[in-house]
Design brief:
Blueprint (H helix, E strand, L loop, with lengths): L3 E7 L5 H11 L3 E4 H10 L6 H9 L6 H15 L3 E5 L5 H10 L5 E9 L2 H13 L9 H24 L3 E5 L4 H19 L1
Parallel strand pairs: 1-3, 1-4, 2-3, 4-5
Bound molecules: uridine-5'-diphosphate and magnesium ion.
């Protein structure tokens, strides 16, 4: 059976991680955060990619797809499951091409969940997360500036690419987590109905 995949995209701080954990509690999906997998790999003793990952993350740049895709593929296999929320990927053309090369035959892309949120609100949330002790080396104004530039220049074109294929499900992410989740549920319930 070919695993189902939902890509979850949106600006840094738009609520991807928060919503993915809610979704994985209510629906039968495994939440895989590309950023979390990279941060784990960065911490792994003996990793040959640790320094490169840290530098990319701090500068808001995107890690080469070979690294990210192999972490995702391994996590998918290890889970033994067949439905995945892939959070924060693909973020640029290198990610998209690399995924298509290796994974598009092995998976079925269901749709893209896209969280729309203003830059000001996203920045406020990430700074709040940093102040609350996220421990993330990129939840500071300087990194956030770079992360936003990368998002606008590199990730938005990927969302547009999928939008042309009718695969993007837009969510207003400027409201409370509960209200955002109400919109998210509509998307997942519609998908269930169509599949049934
Ligand atoms: N990152 C990456 N490739 C990915 C996902 C994340 O290179 O596929 C890096 C990138 O530097 C990004 C950082 O990890 O800015 C943090 O990503 P994450 O999705 O955790 O941050 P968020 O957007 O959720 O705040
Ligand atoms: Mg995240």
């Amino acid at each position: 059976m070919v695993p189902d995949v939902v890509f979850v995209l949106g600006a840094p701080g738009s609520g991807k991680g928060t919503q993915c954990s809610l979704i994985s509690k209510e629906y039968d999906y495994v939440h895989l955060s590309a950023g979390d997998l990279l941060r784990e790999e960065r911490q792994r003793p003996g990793s040959e990619y640790g320094e490169m990952i840290e530098e990319k993350i701090r500068n808001g740049e995107i890690v080469p797809v070979e690294v990210t895709c192999s972490l995702l593929h391994k996590a998918m296999q290890l889970s033994g499951k067949t439905r995945f929320l892939i959070d924060g990927f693909p973020r640029n053309k290198d990610n998209l091409d690399g995924w298509e090369r290796v994974m598009s035959d092995k998976t079925k892309l269901q749709f893209i969940l896209f969280f729309e949120c203003s830059r000001d609100l996203c920045t406020e949330r990430c700074l709040g997360r940093g102040a609350a002790g996220s421990g993330r080396s990129d939840d500071n104004l300087e990194s956030l500036h770079k992360r936003f530039n990368t998002y606008l220049n590199e990730t938005m074109p990927i969302i547009q690419h999928y939008d042309q294929q009718g695969l993007v499900r837009r969510i207003d992410a400027e409201v409370s987590p509960e209200e955002v989740f109400d919109s998210v549920k509509k998307v997942f319930n519609d998908t269930k109905r169509i599949a049934a």
